[in-house]
Amino acid sequence: MDAKHKNTGSRSGLGTVWREWVAPVAVAGVIALSVAGMVELAGRFDGRPAKKDNSAKRTMLAAQQKSAPRFVVAVRSPGTAVVVHNLRTGKIVDETMPPPKGRWYHQVAAAPDGTFIVSSFGGQRVGFHRLRLAADGHATEFTTLPRAISGVSAAWSDMAVNADGDRIGYVTYRGTRPRVDVLSLGSGAHRSWTTSSRGRLGGLSWAGDTLSFVWTPKPAAAAGQVRILNTTKPASDLRTSRAVLSLPKGSAAAVLSRDGRTVVTGMSSRDGLSLAAFSVADGRQTRVLRRFAGSDGLYRLIADRTGRYLLTVSRDGHVHTDSTRDVRGLLGDGDAALTDLAW
Fold it and tell me: TM spans, by residue (predicted)?
């Protein structure tokens, strides 16, 4: 796959994103896996006390949210709408206004206080919009933000918003060569890290000033790596990032815990798929968190805005949740297909 052939500035491009990355899973059905405390608590299994969070706002938010999110916000293919799904019923609660002329919605990521950041792409520029939800899931605000970055938002692009909601990590592409941009929504400060290597860079997640990502070289001669980048350092080559874990067989996704001590990813075996925690310090496995019979590898892993709950999708479309309830068709298919989602 070549990112330069997946320019999502056209409707066909976004359709390709759906077919190659989401549709094989959505056909079988997808649902959130609500694992209370999975990411945050996983960081405490290495035998050391968790670091105290230096953000009172972030601590209060995590304490207030006692259960997994009720709503999924998604970009509908081909990027013409942002829709809100009720996670329990699968029904559409709300959908936003169409994108600006000549642009298409592309990525979405959770932010604090019931908000989401949505990206739109067109004219070699990536813009951002803030969506705010009421307690019932209806949109109460959808605002275009006065910040943008230049570059191509392609099929392999990804986005993450830090826990305080003031910085965006975004991946753009030049052909098959990725670039990581970190943009401050407040000051407009912008830094970019580039590479001359070809490959896919995705799975962005934040832990303080650290931005983690999954790097898969092209051609994929080796397993993907989880790498961490100190975003307080001067922008330079992505080689300044540090590899902390080689992904286990069958996994294409990982999430860094909010304290930066643990990586959660998946492992495949004859018994199925397991979610496991690994220490950032030495790469050792510290705990198996969940096991899923019959699942064939980890496809996507998305943390909610608090970092306490994970949305898990397996490669073969198997659906798993804490209860026996199975909501198939949550993401739809055909005209209702989705290109990205957050919760």
Answer: 21-42
The span from the CA of 159 to the CA of 176, in Å, is 17
Global model pTM greater than 0.70 = yes
Lowest pLDDT segment from 16-25, 97-106, 239-248: 16-25
State the pLDDT at residue 162: 96
Rounded to whole angstroms, what are the CA distances from 276 to 65, 245, 295, 322? 23, 12, 14, 16
Q: How many angstroms separate the CA atoms of 305 and 117, rounded?
A: 11
With 0-12 / 13-18 / 19 or more C-beta atoms within 10 angstroms meaning exposed / middle / buried, residue 313 is: buried
What 3-state class would DSSP assign to 258? Answer: coil
Tokens, residue 22? 């989401």
Residue 201 and residue 194 in contact, taking contact as beta carbons nearer than 8 Å: no
Residue 46 has pLDDT above 50, yes or no: no
Is the separation of the CB atoms in 45 and 277 below 8 Å? Answer: yes
Phi, psi values for residue 144, rounded to 5°: -80, 130
pLDDT at residue number 320: 53
Q: Are 343 and 325 in contact (CB under 8 A)?
A: no
Phi, psi of 24 (to 5 degrees): -60, -30
Identify which of 319, 315, 295 has the alpha carbon closest to the alpha carbon of residue 22: 315
| Angstrom distance (rounded) from CA 216 to CA 337 | 26
Q: Give the confidence band of 336 by pLDDT, cuts at 50, 70, 90.
A: low
Q: For residues 90 and 195, what is the distance between their CA atoms, to the nearest angstrom?
A: 40
Select from 29, 83, 86 the least CA-distant residue to 327.
29
* Helix-then-strand count for the chain, H and E: 4, 22
**Range among 63-77, 226-240, 294-308 with highest mean pLDDT value:** 226-240
Return the pLDDT at 119. 97
Q: In this model, does residue 283 exceed pLDDT 90?
A: yes
Cα–Cα distance for residue pair 297/210, rounded to 1 Å: 27
User: Residue 220: its pLDDT value, please?
Assistant: 66
Q: What token pair was written down for 194?
A: 């580039």
What is the Cα–Cα distance from 218 to 215, expressed in whole angstroms?
10
Q: Report the distance separating Cα 226 and Cα 298, nearest Å.
A: 14
